[in-house]
Amino acid sequence: MYVNYKKQGCLTNKFVECPYYKQAIEEEKKKEEERIIAPDAHEVLEGEKDILEKTVNESVKEALKKYADPKRGIYPDTCYDCLYFSPTTGLCLYMRIKVKDPNNPPCKSKK
């Protein structure tokens, strides 16, 4: 395809009128339509729904047993055992403070 860039406006602020630009946009639209989109995580077969729900609930229950939850009155031995501690930032999300010593939880001393 031969294009006169000056006449078509490909290198100006009227680039939208350029045939190359229009062709690229059309190709991108076709690619988008052809892409296979994976089914949503919520779209499961009816028979699998109960199994999936049971598995998720069991995983949540295991996590709650593994980590302490000060809101329920279960205080951790260390901050690393708490749901509300972020080891990356060193912040206690329960008390909204920076923890100086994660081995000595500040919530335990406030009981």
Describe, in plain words, how this protein is organized in 3D.
- With 111 residues, this protein is mainly alpha-helical.
- It has 4 helices and 3 strands.
- Among the domains are: 7-34; 61-109, no CATH class.
- Helices cover 41% and strands 5% of the residues.
- A 3-stranded antiparallel β-sheet has the order 1-2-3, with no helix packed on it.
- It is elongated.
Cα Rg: 28 Å
- How is the main sheet built? 3 strands, antiparallel
Globally, the shape reads elongated
| Helix residue percentage | 40-55%
Average the pLDDT over all residues and give the rounded result: 75
Q: What is the number of strand segments?
A: 3
User: What is the H/E string?
Assistant: HHHEEEH
Alpha-beta classification: mainly alpha
Q: Unreliable segments (pLDDT under 50, ≥5 consecutive)? A: none
Distance between the termini: 77 Å
Strand content: 5-15%
Number of helices: 4
User: If strands are numbered along the chain, what order do they take across the biggest sheet?
Assistant: 1-2-3
Task: Report a brief summary of the structure.
This protein is mainly alpha-helical and 111 residues long.
